[in-house]
Structure formats: structure tokens, C-alpha cells
Amino acid sequence: MQKILIVINDAPYGTEKAYNAARLAMNIIKYHSETVEIKLFLLADAVFCALPNQKTPDGYYNIERMLKYVIKRGGEVKACGICAEARGIDKLPFLEGIELSNMEEFSQWTVECDKVLTF
Q: Which domains does the chain have, with CATH numbers?
């Protein structure tokens, strides 16, 4: 099975990077779930994507729903613990299925995955 790691660096709203990364992950899972494993790693301001119950700005997509879709269908999502701590959100509850992680696990995912995409 092919493994793809998608790294998100931007906040959930303000740019479309998180949206495009989640959209790609959703479509890979939708059309290739039998042959591809998806992993998402949230770095820098992307750790805010892991927070539940955010009010989606008018005209924007809902990152929470998109990440829940990925997780429900077997994708793994982790958030950088150091990034979350630096932003003061490491003690807040994250979306179900998203855990804090570290650079050791991030580097392990990078080495074991066949492709690494960054947004």
C-alpha cells in the first residue's frame, strides 16, 4: 500500500492551503482508499485546524468537517505538540482522532511514506 504524508503549515482560515490539503486528502481517500494510506501532519499555525467548534467565516469551507471525513475513513492526523504549546493551545481539547505528536514521529512518518506533500 502506498503511503502519502500531507504536511499543512497554515492556519485553517485566511489562506486556502489547509483547505486544498484537506480536499486532496479527502479525494485520495474517496477514490484510492484501497491502495493509498493518508497521513496529515499539522505544523506551525496549522495546529489551529485541530480545534473543534470554530465558526467558519462567511464564504469559507469547514476544516473541521473535512478533517473528520479523513479520520472517519482511516486517515491519520497528528498535530505538532511544540507548535501547539508555542501557541498556547496544547491543553485545549482537539478534534476526536487528532493527537499531539512530536518531531520524532513526524520524521518517522516522513521516512516511511512514499510521497510527502507540503501546503
A: 2-118 (3.40.1260.10)
CA distance 58 to 80: 28
Predicted confidence pLDDT, tens digits, the chain (119 residues): 999 999 999 999 999 999 999 999 999 999 999 999 999 999 999 999 999 999 987 888 999 999 999 999 999 999 999 999 999 999 999 999 999 999 999 999 999 999 999 99
Q: What is the 3-state secondary structure of the chain?
A: CEEEEEEECCCCCCCCHHHHHHHHHHHHHHHHCCCEEEEEEECHHHHHHHCCCCCCCCCCCCHHHHHHHHHHCCCEEEEEHHHHHHCCCCCCCCCCCEEEECHHHHHHHHHHCCEEEEC
pTM of the complete model: 0.96
Distances, alpha carbon 11 to alpha carbons 3, 56, 119, in Å = 24, 13, 11
